[in-house]
Amino acid sequence: MTRLATEAVESSQRPARGGALGWARSGQAITLYLYVLGAVYVTSRLLVHPAGTRQNGDTEDVNQATWFLRYTASAVQHFRLPALVATAMNAPHGVNLMWNTSLLLPGMVVSPITLLFGPQVALTSLLIIGFAGSAAAMFYVLRAWRASVLAAALGGALYGFSPALINSGIGHYSLVLAILPPLMIDRVLRLATGRGRPVRNGLWLGLMAAAQLFISEEALVDAAIAAVILLVVLAACRPHEVLSRIQPAALGLGVAAAVGLVLGARGLWVQFHGVPASGAAATTIISYHGQLTNLGTLPQAFVNPSEGVLLHTHASGVIANNYPQPLPEYLAYLGIPLIIVLLAAIIYFWQHLAIRVAGLTCAFLEWLAMGAKPLQPHVTLPKFLLPWELLQHVPVIEGMVPDRLCILADAAAAAVLAFALDLARSGQFAPFASWRNGAKIATGIAVVALLPVIPAPYAPVPVNQLPAGWTATFAALHVQPNARVLLAPYPYSGASAVMRWQAVSGEPTTMIGGDFIAPNQHGRLGRAGRSGMTPTSWYIDYLYYGAPVKPEPSRQQISSDLRTWRPAALVAVTTTTSRLGIFLIRVFGQPTTRIGNVLGWRLAPDAGVAAGNSG
Questions:
Q1: What pTM was computed for the model?
Q2: Is 438 within 8 Å of 432 (Cβ atoms)?
Q3: Domain that holds residue 442
Q4: Which of 254, 385, 577, 611 is packed most tightly, with the most Cβ within 10 A?
Q5: Beta carbons within 10 angstroms of residue 287's beta carbon
Q6: Do 574 and 568 form a contact (C-beta atoms < 8 A)?
Q7: Is residue 581 part of a domain?
């Protein structure tokens, strides 16, 4: 077996001749233009005021992402690579960025935009790159496996603008940049089918895996899972041919592993040195709507449209909004028409290897995406029928979110759609062969099936503005770059606006607390900066947000926390007459500065001892 796609219809269209100008007017080029226009359309309402608006939903992750982009851009500005352990957040402990969705490689790519226009503009640029680039990558893969331009264009659009990517884009930028996973799976498939030179394919695979390591490690593991499933399905369908390819495929995979490990060795060492892989990742059980839930797919998500697609109703939007997990995890939607078309194509063209392999891979990925724990009784499959149960405690994989496998399931669905459309248009299969306009009817069916997944533009909401007096307060306090600053509100996921304020202003350079994932923490403490919270910091945030009165931490507790933090300054967004202001004045005395809505204290080195003696 030299090519998996020999059973798919080869396109009658050839690359346009006439050099660069000819290609620029070709069907391939027009497809890419349309992908870019589609990405601009999805983000169009954000582009009206790009620096001041973000997409509605998932405020915490968007604010955190602004910090990561600013961190990387600051490193590039000083002509160096970003450090993999950041001390600018969670001082004095720092944060291991390899355990976080820190966008290291994408952040470097868009660093000129971050430095010129700010991190929010750069984030919206990443959305455009992600949607258009992911669609283009899938288009390239389908064309490489002999899909026609039209079929590949529709398949690329299904993947790049799928509800899985659109909803991920509400806050999970690293997942939207789904450009490399289909390209990596393509190289694995080339190795398994003897297409191309093993060493060359291995080099490309290793390079892309190393790059993906610094974009999204989770997507890298998802791609590996999808590749394994695809190879198992292929081996089951063509065992003798696959067995004959074991030696050259092993050579290519060995080259890929060597290249990937050499390029990613530093990052992996920083991530796992001293951290057991079996217990380092954050749990995938979250508290949502008052209950602990597993981030797996519920069946209604496949057919119920959310507000992320154009064709939805108010009732369907309410159902999606009441899903037992956030909308950035509402990833399984394909719509009834597309599901029917995909199932019909898989059954009708079962004898065609490309469609059979892609269809079964899609089904297995969607099955795994349902997770391991029934979210609600009698709503999903029982636990023993959820295969993720067998994987959820495997080191590294246990920290993943299974429903995100829907992204690569959509890539497999795109392959089924493209290859089936070409076969239906070929004039060789009933009933289309007997119809006068059979090819046009087949194309119309594919287009109609895709209509329910056409995305809606993101709804814009204003970003958290910098408090009046924020920058001036730091200037007045003469805070040194390496000096630790205690902030009120104290930053973690529940006070993520502070992350944005630092990203926009560059102040403070070194921040106590933050929103991050930390390894080696029990339960949910590893998520969202909770491992950095103390009774003192919790109390500060209770007062800032006007929460019900909680017990005030003892003088000894406050003193102990301050001795650990050793802040050189305190900056609080509050007034002297607020509950928070009164508490801070009682602990630290009268503020050094009062500018706008911000109070500032210049603290002595023994501030912890002084606080313990006050009270």
A1: 0.92
A2: yes
A3: 333-453
A4: 611
A5: 9
A6: no
A7: yes
